[in-house]
Design a protein that fits this description.
single chain; alpha/beta; Rossmann fold; N-(1-d-carboxylethyl)-l-norvaline Dehydrogenase, domain 2; 2 domains; 3-stranded mixed sheet; 23 helices; 14 strands; globular; binds nicotinamide-adenine-dinucleotide; binds D-Mannitol-1-phosphate; Tagaturonate reductase
């Protein structure tokens, strides 16, 4: 079978929508599954339904790994097949679409001059990005002369300076990272670099006046390359697509920015679920704390209890009751939106988790759980303690599950190795090097001591969690239960009412 590209599609008399040539008006930092299944899908839809006539150049912001995704994207001339599946208004929807919005992919380390040359293109109008939660951070070691600078904000500053020198208009910058105020945080980092690198007051003013940094909230479960079904999909399609992407049909993009965005991005004409608002925060709080909070507080314990994908957890009576306990009794009472709104959102989320068409792997969600637990679960735990003056059982147990999951001993380039106590299968813990080194060094310690060290690690949590009354003993006790009776028993213990 031939590899997917325009010629392959022509030869197979493909009749779907394709846009082979159009000006590149979007530069996108991040070539991952999520951006291709969400932002680039929306651009493709706007191209077809609203004459947006726009191609996207992807920039891989980190070095190409062994997989060499940039090369694979370019070999396929940016084309990829996206499967979006789930239920809409009670109806089963399965959408397959060849996305032709992407023109090509550059790697920041291999093609930096080409990236900078993009700044000279007058057509370029939008910058989109998702560089993970790790991506938007100020790194004072980055230098203007680096080619390129290490961090994403520093690379963006170099790119914006190249644009400024061309005396061309600035950009609408749509940040998609799942951190608070992503766009504004990105702008802060850029301004700091401009100042530290002495790029001049005119440039600083140009950044502020000519560019709109939008904070946005993204919501779609994108499960990425479907390893198990890829061969069957390729056989059915009649071509080999090495960048197949899958996700749920549900999707919402909330963009904080001026209403003029509605003129520049014709999403209304294309009938897309994009909301432009002057305050995205309530949407983000609700989504991150309920949906992502439910994922992060559930998956590590569920994995240790022998589960592998989210949907199966939803049909396990103990795990789903544990998740509901966390969502409805411990997370929602700490949120600012009305209980009714939050419960409606939560109900939709748990239905989405049951999506029969996508397999969302617990191990995929477990990636970087330290930062995720801090951003997605800790605020609810703190809010609950503040409001009710006692510990939320399920969220406290999720911290014990996190520690139990992270107790690996052998560290190699791939991650920290551990063995699942139920399936007896080895698994790899993936997180920042300092997190993995910490657990590799401390996993053998007795539970009470390990808990004290984890809770006291201020670089993980931004504070010493041992200071929360009763938390150390409660986490130690839940960890003892996990060790002696299993993770399922620890989750079950959170459901015993009246204690
Ligand atoms: N997959 C989903 O369902 C989903 C939904 C909403 C949001 N997100 C967010 O999107 C992000 C990417 O998810 P994905 O599923 O596309 O994963 P992925 O592994 O397919 O892509 C990761 C992307 O992040 C970039 N990246 C990784 N580390 C980086 C770093 N240190 N600095 C700069 N860039 C870096 C990679 O180049 C790549 O573009 C996640 O952080 C996630 O929070 C994912
Ligand atoms: O993508 P991650 O790894 O940051 O987080 C895992 C999931 O919680 C996340 O992908 C959600 O499915 C997504 O945020 C839904 O919009």
């Amino acid at each position: 079978m031939k590899t997917l590209n325009y010629e392959t599609l022509k030869q197979s008399n493909y009749e779907g929508y394709l846009l082979e040539d159009a000006p590149v008006r979007v530069l996108q930092f991040g070539e991952g599954n999520f951006m291709r299944g969400f932002v680039d899908y929306f651009i493709d839809q706007m191209n077809e339904k609203a004459g947006f006539d726009t191609k996207v150049t992807l920039v891989q912001p980190i070095s190409q790994g062994a997989f060499r995704l940039k090369d694979i994207i370019n070999e396929q001339e940016g084309l990829y097949t996206l499967y979006l599946q789930g239920f809409q208004d009670g109806q089963e929807v399965r959408e397959k679409r060849v996305i032709s919005a992407v023109k090509n992919c550059l790697n920041a380390y291999e093609d930096w001059n080409e990236v900078l040359d993009m700044a000279k293109k007058p057509d370029l109008r939008f910058i989109t990005c998702n560089t993970t939660e790790a991506g938007i951070a100020y790194d004072p070691t980055c230098q203007f002369a680096d080619a390129p600078a290490a961090s994403y904000p520093a690379k963006l500053t170099q790119f914006l300076f190249a644009r400024f020198q061309q005396q061309l208009p600035g950009f609408i910058i749509l940040a998609c990272e799942l951190i608070d105020n992503n766009g504004k945080e990105l702008e802060k980092c850029v301004l700091q670099h401009a100042k530290d690198w002495n790029l001049g007051e005119d440039f600083i003013q140009w950044i502020q006046k000519e560019n709109v940094f939008c904070s946005t909230l993204v919501d779609r479960i994108v499960t990425g390359y479907p390893r198990a079904e890829a061969d069957a999909m390729n056989a059915e399609n009649g071509y080999v697509d090495n960048t197949l992407d899958t996700g749920e049909i549900f999707g919402v993009w909330v963009i904080e920015g001026p209403q003029s965005l509605r003129d520049e991005l014709p999403f209304e004409k294309a009938g897309l679920p994009i909301i432009v608002t002057d305050d995205h925060k309530p949407y983000k709080e609700q989504k991150v704390r309920i949906l992502n909070g439910a994922h992060t507080s559930m998956v590590l314990g569920a994995f240790l209890a022998g589960q592998t994908i989210v949907r199966d957890c939803m049909y396990d009576p103990t795990i789903s009751a544990y998740m509901n306990e966390a969502i409805y009794n411990e997370i929602i009472p700490t949120l600012s939106l009305s209980k009714e709104d939050c419960e409606q959102f939560a109900k939709a989320v748990t239905e989405r988790f049951k999506n029969p068409f996508i397999d969302h792997e617990l191990l995929a969600i477990s990636l970087n759980s330290t930062a995720k637990w801090k951003a997605r679960v800790l605020p609810s735990l703190l809010g609950y303690v503040d409001k009710f003056h006692k510990l939320p059982k399920a969220l406290t147990t999720s911290l014990a599950s996190y520690i139990a999951f992270y107790r690996g001993k052998e560290l190699d380039a791939d991650g920290l190795k551990a063995v699942n106590p139920v399936t007896k299968q080895p698994y790899t813990i993936k997180d920042d090097a300092d997190v993995l080194e910490f657990f590799a060094a401390n996993s053998d310690k007795p539970n009470a001591q390990l808990v004290s060290l984890v809770l006291g690690n201020t670089s993980f949590w931004g504070q010493d969690l041992n200071a929360i009354e009763g938390l150390h003993d409660a986490v130690t006790s839940a960890l003892d239960t996990i060790d002696n009776e299993g993770a399922m028993a620890a989750m079950q213990a959170c459901l015993n009412k009246g204690e």
